[in-house]
Each structure stands twice: as structure tokens, then as C-alpha cells.
Design goal:
- The chain is mainly α.
- It has 2 domains: about 1-35; about 35-104, no CATH class.
- It is about 55% helix and about 0% strand.
- The protein has helices at about 5-25, 50-65, 70-75, 80-100.
- α2 crosses α4.
């Protein structure tokens, strides 16, 4: 278990993996990773965390797939509206109703 903050643990492991990947490709030295902390909507409570994650993934795919400026595109910190969260709930419910066979 990493005794540092979770951010530092992830940072160290990602940098290590990147260096290993470069070495496997025959490059002894490579450019260092530049970390840009992404911002995301901050949830006000603890009940909708899964929906916040799904909404953030949805936003990435639908709105930022061809992003040229991650700092600008991922700068939202305001909570999602109830309408935005309900949209994810509706997508998820619709998917299950149309694609999952229920045992009766």
C-alpha cells in the first residue's frame, strides 16, 4: 500500500509505466510526463457518486473526444444539475430495459 497521498501514488506508478513502455520500444530516454490536473463537477453529497462518474465519462465522450485544450475543456467544478444527473439515470435505465434479459 502506498503511504503517500493517492495522487502521488498514481503519479509515481504512471511515470514508471511510461518509462517502462519507452524502454520496451528501444528508447532509453524519453520526455517526462506533464501532469495537468483535470477538474470535474464536484458532487455536493455522497449519494450520487456513481452517477457523477458516469456523467463525467459521458461528457468526455460526447463533448471532448477531439479536445485540443484539456485545461479549458476540463475546468468545470460546479455540481451537475438534477437534470444532468437524471439524464444519465434515464440512459442507464433505458439501456437495461432494452438490452438485459430479466429472469422471471
Amino acid at each position: 500500500m502506498c503511504k503517500q497521498s493517492i495522487y502521488n501514488c498514481i503519479f509515481y506508478r504512471m511515470c514508471s509505466a511510461f518509462r517502462s513502455y519507452k524502454r520496451l520500444g528501444g528508447q532509453s530516454k524519453g520526455t517526462k510526463l506533464t501532469w495537468i490536473p483535470a477538474q470535474c463537477a464536484q458532487q455536493p453529497g455522497s449519494l450520487d457518486c456513481g452517477y457523477y462518474v458516469m456523467r463525467f465519462m459521458y461528457d468526455i465522450i460526447m463533448n471532448h473526444g477531439n479536445s485540443q485544450d484539456l485545461t479549458k475543456d476540463f475546468s468545470r467544478t460546479l455540481p451537475y444539475s438534477a437534470e444532468e444527473i437524471n439524464e444519465v439515470k434515464d440512459f442507464w435505465a433505458d439501456y437495461f430495459m432494452n438490452n438485459v434479459e430479466f429472469l422471471a
